[in-house]
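Q: What changes when magnesium ion is included in the input?
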Amino acid sequence: MTATPVSQVPRDRSSIAAQGETLLEVNNLQKYFPIRGGLMSRVVANVKAVDDVSFNIGRGEVVGLIGESGSGKTTAGRALLRLIEPTGGQVIFNGTDITRLSKAQMRDYRREMQIIFQDPFASLNPRMTVSDIIGEAMQIHNLHPGKGRVDRIAELLQRVGLRPEHMGRYPHEFSGGQRQRIGIARALAVDPSFIVADEPVSALDVSIQAQVVNLIQDLQEELGLTVLFIAHDLHVVEYICDRMIVMYLGRIMEIAPSHELNRNPKHPYTEALLSASPIPDPTVKRQRIILEGDIPSPINPPSGCVFRTRCRYAIQDCANVVPELREVSPGHFKACIRDDVL
Ligand SMILES: Nc1ncnc2c1ncn2[C@@H]1O[C@H](COP(=O)(O)OP(=O)(O)OP(=O)(O)O)[C@@H](O)[C@H]1O
Ligand code: SF4
Ligand SMILES: [Mg+2]
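A: The predicted holo structure follows.
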């Protein structure tokens, strides 16, 4: 079997979009971390954490980004916010390519684009009160000056299910779930339109994960937020996400509506990923597929399809061709050269 190499295929970006108006367009995003060595501290290799990643998110849409540990989800989320500088590619937010903006020009976009971090213990400054933590971003952007700021902080705390009278307390006085609520209030403090939620519940007890996911869902609906929701496990986010993006070793393997991805995965990696997680729906039957070995090093990823060293359907051509992300049914894309297996 043969397939056309990526470089020879013109890409139709619009087709990787959601329905409706596009808020965020990510084109060929790349983030390499250089490894330096030798006396001259030259770049001797690169960690290819994110390589040629393209997708769109519609305004008001919730998109899940899933994949095993080390697949590049956090790096992609941070690079598209420019919390770390992308090595290449474009990030078009509301019509503007933000990768070309100066630091000063980025200020207004920082307000629009916020992040909720994975670890609510590490992401809150232990020496700042809740009021200072939430007020800091308002101060940077000169929002709600004077008495109005305290009122706004109280309102936000109430909205995320915390008591306004606790705004003078320090992070260590709260539980993990409450700290994540503070992190959510901090992200909302500057009235963003887009939020990257980077595994916001994976550090929390299972018993409170659903509460925090529900809170994010309520806020998303109420405020019309657009959200990129990063998770290890599809089942944590399936019901709040409109679509899912599956990443492996820095590349996108599959994009599909959540419901469709769960029931009808078209990429061998997604099939294996789903088979490893429990199925809440008893009508869906799955064979358990063991993914042999670890995820390869992103310093020297496999040629062709990066998944080929662990793929049970791999054939010779998989080593020669980087599979294009192509539409296999309306709104369903996969980066795999084989159509005869799934
Ligand atoms: N600052 C850095 N310098 C070098 N390599 C890095 C750096 N940050 C991340 N990496 C590497 O990039 C790859 C992707 O990491 P990333 O944290 O984005 O994965 P992830 O999908 O978010 O994983 P997890 O589910 O564990 O959070 C990994 O191999 C990681 O070791
Ligand atoms: S391109 Fe080949 S190795 Fe990659 S997922 Fe498809 S069948 Fe497996
Ligand atoms: Mg991560």
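Observations recorded in class: Residues 21-264 form a domain with the Rossmann fold fold (CATH 3.40.50.300).
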